[in-house]
Amino acid sequence: MTTPTLDSRPAAPAATNPREQSDLGFGSVVVKSVRGRFINRDGEPNSKKYGLGAQRAMRVYLAALATSWPVFLGWMFGALLLINGCFALAYRALGAGALRGTEQVGLDDPFMRAFTFSIGVFTTTGTGPMFAYGPTANWLVDLESFLGPITLVVAFGVMIARLTRPRMHLGFSESAIIAPYEGGRGLMFRMTNMRPSDLSDVRARVNLTWYEETNGVRERNFHELELERESVELFTLHWTVVHPITARSPLAGITPEKLAASQAEFIIFISALEETFSTRVTKRMSYIWDEVRWDVKFASIFANGPDGVIAIDVERLSRTERLDDGATRNPAALELQTASVSS
Predict the structure, then answer these.
(1) Which ranges of the chain have pLDDT less than 50?
(2) Which of 156, 192, 216, 132 lies closest to 319 in space, CA to CA?
(3) What's domain 27-41+168-342's superfamily in CATH?
(4) Whether the predicted model's global pTM rises above the 0.85 cut
C-alpha cells in the first residue's frame, strides 16, 4: 500500500510553547500531580471518581457488556443455579408436605425435586405433576413466578445489548518501536482489525505526554505528534502508524535514556466507521517509555494467500527483526542536520 510522504504535505506550523499543546482534557492540576500512565493498555483511563456511591447495578451492567461471551454465559448459568438453589432450599425448609406430586418425577433426592420445581416456576416452563401445597408454599411460588420472568427479561435484554452494541476489537503490536524511516527515524506501531466486520474511514491520533524542563522547572507537557498519514479509507489488512522524527518533532534527538528520564507515554486514539451498524466507534490505548523498543524494525506480516488475494498473518503483528546496535538508539544524521539548519 503506497502512502503519501510527509514531504508531500504542507508543513504544519510548529508549536513554540509546550503549554500550548492539548492536555486532552485532564487539566493542568491533574497533569502536574498525576504519577504513572494516563491510559491503560486496555484503553481504560487510569483514574477513579469518588462520591458517586457504589453504583453496583451500573457497574455490573457495564461489566456484562464488556466481558467475553464464555464468561457472560457462565455468569448467567451460575446466577440461574444460585437463585433457584435458594428457592429450592426455601421450599425444603417448609417441610416435606410443601410440594406434592414429587413421586412421579423419578428423583429420589428431595433437594433435586425442589430444585426442579423451582426451575419450572422460575422459567415459566411448567412444573409437571408437582404443585405447591399450603399458603406459605403458594406465596413462595407467587414470589418466584414474579421474580423469574423479570430476571430473564433483564438477562436477555443484556444479551441483546451485547449483540447490537457497535464496537471494534483492534489488535495492537505488543511494543511501539523506533525504526529507520526515510533516511531518519520514526516512531511506529502496528494494528489490525481482529473482527470479521469491516471498518472504513479509520483515523488515528497520537499524543505524547512527558516531563520537560521549562525555565528550569520540570513539568509534564503534552504534544500531539504529526503522523505520516492520519487516516485510511479501507482497513482490510493492517496499518503501520508512523510518526516521522524530524526537527519539528518533540522526539528530535531522542535516546532511550532521555525517553526513560522523561517517563514518556504515547496515548493513542483510534476512530472508525463500523459498517455493520453504520456508526463510528472509538478505541484508546497507550505505550509507556519501557514499552518502546529500539534497534529493531517490524518484520513482514504478509502471508501466502490464494492467487490474487492479499493475506496477512495476524500472529506476526508484533514480530520484529533485529538491527545493528545503535541503528536507532542514536539520533539520525539527517535529523541532526535538519535541526542544525533550522536553528
Answers:
(1) 1-21, 339-343
(2) 192
(3) G protein-activated inward rectifier potassium channel 1 (2.60.40.1400)
(4) no
